[in-house]
Amino acid sequence: MNMTNYLTASAIVEKIYCVGDKESFDEIIYQLKKIGNNINQIRMLANFGNIQFANLDECTNAFLEVNKFIQKIIKRTTRWQP
For residues 78 and 82, what is the distance between their CA atoms, to the nearest angstrom? Predict the structure, then answer.
């Protein structure tokens, strides 16, 4: 964001959030989706009795917290874009 866009954004919105480049953010989202998919596959295998596995609640909760944080960033960055 150049200085003109920054000053314009400052005048319009209360806070400015810098996420970084789109490719890096897209990669984070992609990896987050893969992790969620892996958790679901492990749960499915455990439910079918194919594997015996420890409780994944803590892992799932951590995943959901990261996902909520990412969603907040997405909502903030799409409110206004130069």
Answer: 10
If pLDDT is split at 50, 70 and 90, which confidence band does 18 have? Answer: low
Joined tokens for residue 58: 């803590």
Q: Which long-range contacts (CB under 8 A, 24 or more apart) does 78-81 make?
A: 79/13, 80/9, 80/12, 80/13
pTM for this predicted structure: 0.53
70-77: long-range contacts, CB 8 A cutoff, minimum separation 24: 70/28, 70/29, 70/32, 73/17, 73/19, 76/15, 76/17, 77/17, 77/19
The pLDDT tens digits of the residues spanning 45-79 come to: 888 888 876 677 888 888 888 888 888 777 766 65
The full length of the chain comes to 82
